[in-house]
Amino acid sequence: MANSVWNGSTEPTGEQMAGRALNCDVAVVGLGAMGAAALYQLAKRGAKVIGIDRFSPPHDKGSTHGETRITRQAIGEGIAYVPLALRSNEIWRELEAETGETLLSQVGCLIIGAMGPLASGPIRTSFLATTKQAAEDYGIAHEVFGPDEIRARYPQFAPREDEIGYFEPGGGYLNPERCIAAQLARAQALGANLRLNTVVHSLSPEGDGVRIETDRGSIHASQAIVSAGPWAPELLGAPFDRLLTPSRQVMHWFPVEEDWALRWTESPVFIWAPGGDPRDFFYGFPSLSGSGILKTAGEQYDEATTPETVDRAVAPVEPHAMYDAHLAGRLRGVGPQAVRSVTCLYTVTPDSHFLIDRHPDSDRILVASPCSGHGFKHSAAVGEALAQVVVEGRSRIDLSPFGLSRFRSSSTTA
């Protein structure tokens, strides 16, 4: 692909207004975590690339918002993710140098829970054990200590006697809105063409490429990357409409008591993982300087939804339930009345792992989006890997664990 400096306008071109399809090497549909990263990496490689989003990212309609997202290096969801996490941290630092933005804050990550044996089963069946094994396999700095030392180091946490702490100094948090904005700005500066506030109605193979029909005209791309998150099931059709399930999630911000303000401002990010049930799993962040509040969230996958039908309002009972189920008795110096709460959407596969693969009906369409709620920390490296697949034919990090083939048995898809 020849290097080209391309008009980054977000307005329809004369070509489109005349009814002709706009042509490009690659179209990226959906500019959230994965899409923005892919667009930036493709533009760096000189591809003639168009990025399309139905809103103007960063926005609060999908999965990539809410001030902070945890990043870790040893990954309890599976050791296959570790290379993505490590490479992503390198890319965030590269982006910071290019833009002057602060994207990654490595304040440490503390995981509290019961250390069981490594076991097969649902994705977080042995979260702590898998995290520790990943750290040992990749030489990632970490410590493991008992409940007394957790209380001594971090008095704001109140673990049970059977719980231990795993501390990783290289963990921390990312600012998702800044990360998206920085990558889109760099992509546009490198020649990417953005089509924001543009709805994609369909994608279909056409000749030696893909035809993309939008509410602002047609685009013909040699290849397309679909990273549309909760909009992907309807857009992609079978088999993705059976494999990708959007779910409603809620984030809460609770007040920090004045006597505990310094402890919470200097806190690591934290994850409480008492067992394999996702309803027991919750996480949180330091109190950002001057805010007087801290963000926490749990996870729920019991109710499927869609971006069009999701209830974005948060009922008063929801933060109360969050506090009673998770925070009470575990977090000291945190008030029970949430200051604010917002929703977001996770798009989940049957096994809660990523799905990154070619569409079975067209090898010109690369699907990469359903992150199952643990994707942002990996997104910079996934974007780079997608660009490598498109430009070079293969990625340097192994993406095979995230392929479609694992869902081909009827028992799994059921």
Structure report:
The protein is an alpha+beta fold and 414 residues long. It contains twelve helices and 19 strands. Strands 1, 2, 9, 10, 11, 12, 18 and 19 form an eight-stranded mixed beta sheet that branches. The protein has an eight-stranded mixed beta sheet with strand order 6-7-5-14-15-16-13-17, with helices on both faces. Strand 18 (356-359) and strand 19 form a beta hairpin. Helix 3 packs across helix 11 (379-392). The longest helix is centred in the N-terminal third of the chain and has 18 residues, at 82-99. The radius of gyration is 21 Å and the shape is globular.
* Helix/strand class: alpha+beta
Shape: globular
Oligomer: single chain
Radius of gyration: 21 Å
* Beta-strand content bin: 25-35%
How large is the count of helical segments?
12
Outline the biggest β-sheet.
Answer: 8 strands, mixed
How helix-rich are the residues, as a percent range? 25-40%
Ranges with pLDDT <50 over ≥5 residues? 1-8, 410-414
**What is the residue-mean pLDDT, rounded to a whole number?**
92
How many distinct beta strands? 19
Brief summary of the model shown:
With 414 residues, the protein is an alpha+beta fold. Helices cover 27% and strands 25% of the residues.
Keywords:
single chain, 414 residues, alpha+beta, eight-stranded mixed β-sheet, 25% strand, globular, disordered N terminus, disordered C terminus
